[in-house]
Design goal:
Oligomer: single chain
Shape: globular
Number of strands: 28
CATH class of the largest domain: Alpha Beta
Number of domains: 2
Radius of gyration: 24 Å
Strand content: 15-25%
Bound molecules: 2-acetamido-2-deoxy-beta-D-glucopyranose
Length: 580
C-alpha cells in the first residue's frame, strides 16, 4: 500500500497526550544509556515546540544473508571469491521486510506525520523526519532535556532512553540521534608535530635497509613510502579499473594548489594535470580558502602515491553538535550515499573515529552493517585505529578505550609505525598506535587463530581492562609519524594513524590496478584474505608499545598484535601473491 493512501485516512489528526496505544501494543524500551557522554550536563526540560530531526532505522532482516555473501566473496579459497554483488542485490539485502514501511507509516500517521515529512534512504531501510518535542515525547514515551557542553557552550536536545510500541520492535532497529552520546572533539585528526613538538623515538638503523634513505627516519615523503614498502616505480594505469577515494568530515577540506605544489615537489614523475574530483555528500563542500591538515594529508598521500588513478574526495556535510548531526549519522550518510552509486571506487580511506562508548551497540551495529554492504559491493573500507594507544593518559590503570569504527569487523583498521627499521609508532608515550579489543563486536572467525595466539602470549596481563572476546584491531599498519604535508602554501609535519590509512589504502589501490590489468577482480573486503594468506606478504612488526590508560599498553610481537596488526605492506610480495 502506498504511504499517502494510508495517511489520507488519518488526515491532520491532532496530536495530544491521549494518542491511543498503537494497535493496543504497550511500549517496550528500545535503547537506554546509563549516563550522557562525559562533559555533557543535563539541564531543563526541552521546549515542547522545539523541532527534532531524527532517523528511524528499519530492521534489516536479510542482513545475515548479506554477511554470508560477503564472507564467501572475500574468502580467497571460496569459488565465489571476488564475485562482488551488484548495487541492486545489495540494496535488496539491506531492505526491511515487506510490510515494515506500511506498519511504520500507520504508526506515524497516528501523530499526524505524513509522507511529505519523511525521506527515505537508498535501501529504504531508514526514514528521516522531523517532529516537535511534544510529538516525539509521546511517540517514544520519553522526556527530552537540554544537555549542555560546558567547554564549547554547545547544547543538544536529547534523552537517555526511549521506547517504541512493542509491535514495532521487530520492524525498527533504532531511532537516532535521540540518546545523549557525542564525541568530544576526539574524532581522530592528525597531530601537527612541527618544530618544537615532540620528537619521534629514534629507531636503530636497520643495517639491511640500505635501500631506504636514512632521512625517512625523520621525515616521511611519498618516496620514503615507495622505498619502505617496496613499491619501486610501479605506476598504475589511469583507465585500468582501479581508483581510490578518501572521505572527510567536520569541515576538513583540501586546496588544489597545495596538491599541485606537493606533487611537483615530491612526486616529480606526476604528469601535469593530476587532479581529484570532489563529491558532496549531504551538503558537504570543499572551501579552497580553508584547507585542513587531515584532508591535505589524505589527498597528498592517498592520491599522490597512486596517481594517475581516478581519485575522489567525498566531503560529508554536517558540523559537530548541530542538533541533527553526530559523527555517527555522518558515517551512516556516507555509507548510504555510496550504496546508491552504480560505480564505486574500490578503496576508500577514512581517518576518523571516536570512542566506542560514544555509540550504543545498536548504533555501532547499524553503521558497521553499512560497511559490510560496501564490502559486498567490492569496496575495501579502511579506517584509522586511533592515536592514543590503549587509552588516554591516566594516573592508574583504567579500562582501555576502544576506537570506532576501527573496531567494526567489516572494516580494515590501520595502526601506525615509525622508523626505517619499523617499530610501532609512539611519540613520548603521548601519541601511539591505537589498538585493542571491541566491547561491542565479538571476535570474527577470520581472525580467531591470530588473536587467540596473542591472547595466549598476553596471559592474564591487563585482565579486566579489556574484553578478550572482542574483535581485535588494528588489522594492519603503516608509517604514521612526521609526514611532510603542504597546507595553504606552508610545509607541515602531520602525525597519527591518519597518515597510515591513506598509505595502506594507496598500496591496495596499486594492487587492484595490478589485478585489473591481469583481468582479475578488485580485492574488496580485505580481512579474510589478510588473515588467511595476505599476512605472509606483510612486514611483521615486533617492537614497540602503545601506552595509555595508566599502563604500558600492549607489546608488538611476532604475528598479529593489537598495535601493528599483521604488519606493514611489502608491495612487491603482495603483488606476486594477488596475481598468483
Ligand atoms: C503533512 O505534514 C505537513 C507538516 O507536518 C503539513 O503541513 C501538511 O499539511 C500535511 N499534509 C497532509 C496531507 O496531511
Ligand atoms: C538513489 O539514486 C536514485 C537514482 O539512481 C535517486 O533517484 C534516489 O533519490 C537516490 N536515493 C537517495 C536516498 O539518495
Ligand atoms: C509512558 O507511557 C505510560 C503509559 O504507557 C505513561 O503512563 C507514561 O506517562 C509515559 N511516560 C512518558 C515519559 O511519556
Ligand atoms: C640482515 O640480514 C642478515 C642476513 O639475511 C640477517 O642474518 C640479519 O639478522 C639481518 N639484520 C637485521 C638487523 O635484520
Ligand atoms: C582540479 O580540479 C579543480 C576542480 O574541478 C579545478 O578547480 C582545478 O583547476 C583542477 N586543477 C588542475 C591542475 O587541473
Ligand atoms: C570559505 O572560507 C572563507 C574564509 O574563511 C570564507 O570567507 C568564505 O565565505 C568561505 N566560502 C564559502 C562558500 O563558504
Ligand atoms: C589555495 O592555496 C594556495 C596556497 O597553496 C593559496 O595561494 C590560494 O589562495 C588558496 N586558494 C584559495 C581560494 O584560498
Ligand atoms: C539537518 O536538518 C536540517 C533541517 O532540518 C537540514 O537542512 C540539514 O540538511 C540536516 N543536516 C543533516 C546533516 O542531515
Ligand atoms: C565483551 O564482548 C562480548 C562480545 O562482543 C560482549 O558480548 C560482552 O558484552 C562484552 N563484555 C563487556 C564487559 O564489555
Ligand atoms: C611486554 O614487554 C615488556 C617490556 O619488555 C615486558 O615487561 C612484558 O612482560 C611484555 N609483556 C608480555 C605479555 O610479554
Ligand atoms: C618534521 O620533523 C622532523 C623531525 O623533527 C624534522 O626533521 C623535519 O624538518 C620536520 N619537517 C617539517 C616540515 O617541519
Amino acid at each position: 500500500m502506498k504511504l499517502s493512501l494510508l495517511l489520507g485516512l488519518v488526515g491532520a489528526s491532532l496530536v495530544n497526550a491521549d494518542v491511543p496505544a498503537f494497535r493496543g501494543s504497550p511500549f517496550k524500551l528500545k535503547e537506554s544509556i546509563s549516563a550522557p557522554s562525559t562533559g555533557w550536563v543535563k539541564g531543563s526540560a526541552a521546549q515542547l515546540d522545539t523541532v527534532l530531526t531524527f532517523q528511524i532505522g528499519l530492521s534489516r532482516p536479510r542482513f545475515g544473508e548479506l554477511e554470508q555473501n560477503l564472507m564467501e566473496i572475500s574468502d580467497p579459497s571460496h569459488a565465489r571469491y571476488g564475485v562482488h554483488l551488484s548495487k541492486d542485490d545489495v540494496l535488496e539485502l539491506m531492505a526491511p521486510q515487506s510490510d515494515t514501511q506500511e506498519v511504520v507509516a500507520e504508526w506515524l500517521a497516528l501523530y499526524g506525520l505524513n509522507e511529505t515529512s519523511v525521506s527515505y534512504s537508498s535501501a529504504k531501510d531508514a526514514m528521516t523526519l522531523s517532529a516537535p518535542v511534544r510529538v516525539a515525547e509521546s511517540m517514544f514515551n520519553t522526556s527530552f532535556y537540554v544537555y549542555s557542553h560546558a567547554d564549547s557552550g554547545d547544547s543538544l536536545v536529547r534523552t537517555t532512553q526511549y521506547s517504541l510500541p512493542e509491535v514495532l520492535d521487530d520492524h525498527i532497529a533504532l531511532v537516532q540521534p535521540l540518546v545523549m552520546l557525542a564525541s568530544l572533539g576526539q574524532v581522530a585528526k592528525p597531530t601537527p608535530s612541527s618544530a618544537g613538538g615532540p620528537t619521534p623515538l629514534t629507531p636503530t638503523q636497520d643495517v639491511n635497509s640500505t635501500a631506504v634513505d636514512p632521512s625517512c627516519n625523520y621525515q616521511i615523503t611519498p618516496d620514503c613510502l615507495r622505498q619502505l614498502y617496496n613499491i619501486g616505480n610501479y605506476t598504475p594505469s589511469a583507465n585500468g579499473g582501479s581508483a581510490i577515494a578518501v572521505s572527510e568530515f567536520e569541515n576538513e577540506w583540501a586546496n588544489f594548489t597545495d596538491y599541485d605544489t606537493f606533487l611537483a615537489e615530491n612526486v616529480p614523475s606526476a604528469a601535469a594535470g593530476s587532479n581529484f574530483s570532489i563529491v558532496s555528500v549531504t551538503g558537504g563542500v570543499n572551501n579552497q580558502s580553508e584547507p585542513g591538515g587531515e584532508a591535505s594529508l589524505d589527498v597528498q598521500y592517498a592520491f599522490g602515491l597512486t596517481r594517475p588513478l581516478p581519485a575522489t574526495f567525498y566531503t560529508v556535510g554536517g558540523s559537530p553538535y548541530s542538533s541533527n548531526w553526530t559523527f555517527s549519522t555522518g558515517l551512516l550518510d556516507l555509507a548510504d550515499f555510496l550504496l546508491n552509486q552504480t560505480d564505486l571506487p574500490p578503496v576508500i580511506s577514512t581517518s576518523y573515529g571516536e570512542d566506542e562508548t560514544t555509540v550504543t551497540s545498536a548504533q555501532a551495529n547499524r553503521i558497521c552493517q553499512g560497511f559490510a554492504a560496501l564490502g559486498a559491493r567490492g569496496m575495501s573500507v579502511l579506517f584509522s585505529s586511533g592515536d592514543y594507544g590503549v587509552g588516554y593518559p591516566s594516573g592508574s590503570p583504567v579500562a582501555f578505550t576502544v576506537h570506532f569504527p576501527a573496531s567494526c569487523p567489516y572494516v580494515t583498521s590501520v595502526g601506525m609505525t615509525t622508523g626505517i627499521h619499523e617499530v610501532a609508532g609512539n611519540i613520548d608515550n603521548e601519541v601511539s598506535s591505537g589498538g585493542g579489543f571491541s566491547t561491542i563486536f565479538p571476535r570474527p572467525s577470520y581472525q580467531d587463530e591470530q588473536v587467540s595466539d596473542y591472547l595466549t602470549y598476553l596471559g592474564d596481563q591487563y585482565s579486566g581492562l579489556y574484553n578478550s572476546s572482542g574483535r581485535g584491531y588494528p588489522d594492519v599498519s603503516a608509517q604514521g609519524i612526521n609526514f611532510l604535508v603542504e597546507i595553504y602554501g606552508y610545509k607541515s609535519n602531520e602525525t597519527g594513524t591518519s597518515a597510515s590509512v591513506p598509505t595502506f589504502a594507496g598500496v591496495i589501490a596499486l594492487l587492484n590496478d595490478a589485478r585489473s590489468n591481469a583481468g582479475k577482480s578488485t580485492l574488496g573486503f580485505l580481512n579474510p584474505w589478510l588473515y588467511s594468506s595476505g599476512y605472509s606478504a606483510l612486514n611483521d612488526i615486533t617492537e614497540g608499545t602503545n601506552p595509555g590508560a595508566g599502563t604500558n599498553g600492549f607489546n608488538a610481537t611476532k604475528g598479529w598484535d593489537p598495535l601493528t596488526g599483521l604488519g606493514t605492506p611489502d608491495f612487491a610480495k603482495l603483488q606476486a601473491l594477488v596475481l598468483a
